[in-house]
Structure formats: structure tokens, C-alpha cells
Write a structure and sequence with these properties.
two-stranded antiparallel ribbon; about 160 residues; elongated; mainly alpha; 5 helices
């Protein structure tokens, strides 16, 4: 037996009433938890789909870029810039999708997508070569471009 705030003893089945919660309020509290779980699932699904969308956009743009490089044979600086623009456009698209799926703080979801995209990019490029060949400045630049593109995409989502 427990005692409520008035000092009366109540059994465990009525314990919720001791704290002033009716059956409806308990249901509301449970619904709040279910709503939170639903939102987390929606966020995870939106982030995953946005990341896949960004990767697909990267693949398509890089294939087009490879064809253009084959035909025009541009300088190295143009190629590096084109790759960074590809990252920005892909993150913009993925951030836009995430922003469309989220209800609040869309720019933060886009920023997170850009950071996850960079992390995925960094891990994939590291698997190809054991020694990561990019310098710290190039990696930081790519991170800022990916995060910025994703954040911009999130801001543009309505």
C-alpha cells in the first residue's frame, strides 16, 4: 500500500490517482510517448531516404561529369571544383528532402544530413585507399560545403 498526497492509503492499481492523473491523462501521457517514437521513426526514415537520394544524385552527376571530362579534358582545378559543386548539389537535394519531411528545425536536419553525407563520403573514400590522401584543409572544405549545402536545402524546403 502506498499513500497519496492527502495521506490516504491506496493500492497499486489506484496509484495513478494518488498523483492526480486520471485514466485519460495516463492515456495522454502514453500517447505522448508513442508520438515521440513515431516522430523519431519519421526522422530516421527521412534522414535515411535523404541520404540515399543524395548518394543517387552524386552518382548521376559524377557520371555526367565523367563523360564531360572524357570529351573536354579540363584542367585539374576545374575537375576539383566540379566535384565540390557535385557534393553541394547532392547535399542540397538531400537536405531539401529531409526538410520536407520534418516539421521543425528543417535547417538543422539538412545540416545533419550534410554532415552524415560527408562522413559516408569520407569512409567510402578511405576504404579505397588505406591512407586517406586528402589534406585536412581539403577535408574541412568538403565538410563545410556538404553541411552548408544540406542546411541550405533544409531552409529551402517548405
Amino acid at each position: 500500500m502506498r499513500r497519496n498526497t492527502a495521506g490516504e492509503s491506496v493500492d497499486s492499481a489506484q496509484g495513478a490517482y494518488a498523483f492526480g492523473l486520471s485514466g485519460f491523462e495516463q492515456d495522454d501521457r502514453r500517447m505522448g510517448t508513442m508520438e515521440q517514437l513515431r516522430r523519431r521513426g519519421k526522422a530516421a526514415t527521412g534522414m535515411l531516404v535523404g541520404l540515399v537520394l543524395a548518394c543517387l544524385a552524386t552518382t548521376v552527376i559524377l557520371l555526367i561529369l565523367a563523360f564531360v571530362m572524357l570529351k573536354l579534358q579540363p584542367e585539374t582545378g576545374i575537375i576539383e571544383t566540379s566535384i565540390l559543386v557535385t557534393y553541394a548539389l547532392s547535399c542540397l537535394l538531400g537536405g531539401w528532402y529531409c526538410g520536407r519531411k520534418m516539421e521543425r528545425r528543417k535547417f538543422l536536419w539538412g545540416l545533419l544530413l550534410g554532415a552524415l553525407y560527408f562522413l559516408l563520403l569520407f569512409l567510402v573514400s578511405g576504404m579505397g585507399d588505406r591512407a586517406v590522401q586528402s589534406s585536412l584543409l581539403q577535408s574541412l572544405t568538403a565538410l563545410l560545403i556538404c553541411a552548408g549545402g544540406g542546411m541550405l536545402g533544409g531552409m529551402l524546403a517548405r
